[in-house]
Amino acid sequence: MKLDRVKEEVANIRRTQNFFLTALVGIVAYLFANFELKPNLRNVLAVSALIVLVPILLSFKDAMKRKLSELEKTGKDE
């Protein structure tokens, strides 16, 4: 039972991580396509979103490592 729960948590982390990664790629693509030296609201918001998304993705990476180590321990116990 615990093994299934941990596997489901890992799947949820991956799904959410993929969502944020897709958003990050979209924002970077937008900045490459529409970047102007004169700052406008869209560019400022896009850069702000990058600044917010990168730490979120790094936290998901850490959460994934913790859950995978928990999954390994659970697999050995059962």
List keywords for this structure.
single chain; 78 residues; mainly alpha; 2 helices; transmembrane; membrane; transmembrane helix
At a glance:
This protein has 78 residues and is mainly alpha-helical.
Explained architecture:
This protein has one domain (2-77). It is built from two helices and no strands. Helix content is 90%, strand content 0%. It has helices at residues 2-34, 41-77. It has 78 residues and is mainly alpha-helical.
Write the layout of secondary structure elements.
Elements: H1 2-34, H2 41-77
Helix pairs in contact: 1-2
Keywords: Membrane, Transmembrane, Transmembrane helix
Cα distance spanning the termini: 10 Å
CA-based gyration radius = 18 Å
> How does the helix and strand content classify structurally?
mainly alpha
Helix tally equals: 2
Q: How is the main sheet built?
A: none
- Got a strand count? 0
> What number of structural domains do the residues give?
1
User: Percent of residues in beta strands?
Assistant: under 5%
Low-confidence stretches: none
Described by its quaternary structure, the protein is single chain
Name the helix and strand elements from N-terminus to C-terminus, one letter apiece. HH
| Net shape | rod-shaped
Q: Which range best describes the helical content: under 10%, 10-25%, 25-40%, 40-55%, 55-70% or over 70%?
A: over 70%
Average of pLDDT: 89
